[in-house]
Amino acid sequence: MTLTSALTFFVAIFIFGITPGPGIFAIMARALSQGARACTALAFGMVISDVIYLVLACFSLSAIAENYGTLFTLIRYAGAAYLIYLGWKLWTAPAPTEASDIPVKRSGIGASLLQGIAISASNPKVILFYIAFLPTFMDLTRLSHTDIVLAAALTVVALMAGLMLVAWGASKARKLARSSRAMQRLNRAAGTIMISAGALLAVKS
Q1: pTM (global) more than 0.85
Q2: Which of 44, 162, 170, 194 could pair with 28 as two cysteines, CB 3.0-4.6 Å apart?
């Protein structure tokens, strides 16, 4: 991989990472309800899933997707149902008496990683990107192991930068609220985002 292709690939992955979709909606919802720091493990889980798809694409992911289309559909519906469930939990959470007393149930690092992997793995946009666009940036028939490692490293940095930038922006909006009613509205906004993400994922073809 040349320097020019590596830079182009990095920019493309960054833009891809911040494109609105289920993953971005999930990051925004978590940042609104818990802050940007709580998004780190969730974002890294998504990145892990993306890197797996990247490596699989290098070894003919297109053939796998073509032969196991039904399995990918089932994964997509399962991911959509999970996002809708999380959104419902946020919507129905009781309003705190003060902003500092928000009863936030924080997931552990392992659970957040698994959530991120599940969300990204069930998103058809991720699959389609690495199947259709990866060959635009590199010749998969001539990739060396070094090229694959470099591409994976660039993907990790670009995606984490994009996802955490989104989390930071959403977190800033969260800190503007101080009243119980405002925090309940933010929770419901986060829940609406999560439910919308699930619905979007369910109807995507």
Answers
A1: no
A2: 170
